[in-house]
Design goal:
The chain has 196 residues and is of the alpha+beta class. Strands 1, 2, 3, 4, 5, 6, 7 and 8 form an eight-stranded antiparallel sheet that branches. Strand 4 and strand 5 form a beta hairpin. It binds a DNA duplex (13 and 13 nucleotides) through strand 3, strand 4 and helix 3.
Length: 196
DNA sequence: ATCAAGATTACCT
DNA sequence: GGTAATCTTGATA
């Protein structure tokens, strides 16, 4: 079997390009013996120069330490008292930049994702495409929490990224969702996925 | 020490 | 279209 896992070469790009390059790639997680996966179809870019970013101005903190790691690490943070969001760290070590994974199309493990999402609000998600179509939903469906913060996607045997040949078609961009600052930047990217 | 805001979601009218 | 839920973080004192 060919090695479809994304390597360091893939991550050698700036944050804006990475946000687009990640579209169509597959997020894979082995959680409790179950394989969960999905195709990334929506992302947002965040850099140190961006007032909406947790690391604006190069500010470091315990929460954002992972953002300053080398590209390919997983940055997970807790938000609004009840949700987690996952990001792929980008650029070089020492620069706090990352790409937020805003949505994936489930491929494997939908039964587990359904259970994980139900545990959150007690309701069953019937349609697969609604399981992870939002940043909080992605983390909840996959079971990601801050314990997974700092995972190296290049070497971890539990969480990683693959290229399975899906193509991001007709990539579009817009202002980012849910932010008050940096709204003038069209740093949200989303695409239709060909090959499903 | 205190407090407002937050890279969200689900449910309401 | 509006807002409650829920709590960590960062700012201000």
């Amino acid at each position: 079997m060919t090695d479809r896992r994304l390597n360091a070469d893939f991550f050698a790009a700036d944050t804006l390009e990475m946000a687009q390059r990640l579209l169509g790639k597959v997020l894979v997680a082995r959680m409790d013996g179950h394989v969960l996966s999905g195709v990334i179809h929506e992302t947002e870019a965040y850099t140190e120069e961006d007032p909406a970013c947790h690391t604006f101005g190069g500010r470091r903190s315990a929460r954002t330490a992972t953002m300053f790691q080398a590209a390919g690490h997983l940055y997970v943070y807790f938000i609004y008292g009840m949700y987690h969001c996952i990001n792929v760290v980008t650029e070089r070590e020492g620069r706090g930049c990352a790409v937020l994974i805003r949505g994936v199309i489930p491929l494997e493990g939908m039964d587990v994702m359904r259970k994980n999402r139900m545990a959150g609000n007690g309701k069953t998600v019937v349609k697969d495409h609604l399981l992870a179509n939002g940043p909080g939903k992605v983390a909840q469906a996959f079971g990601f929490t801050t314990v997974h913060d700092g995972t190296d996607l290049l070497t971890s045997s539990y969480i990683y990224l693959e290229d399975r040949g899906y193509a991001a078609e007709d990539i579009r961009r817009s202002a980012r969702i849910g932010i008050r600052k940096g709204t003038e930047l069209d740093w949200r990217f989303y695409a239709r996925i060909r090959g499903l």
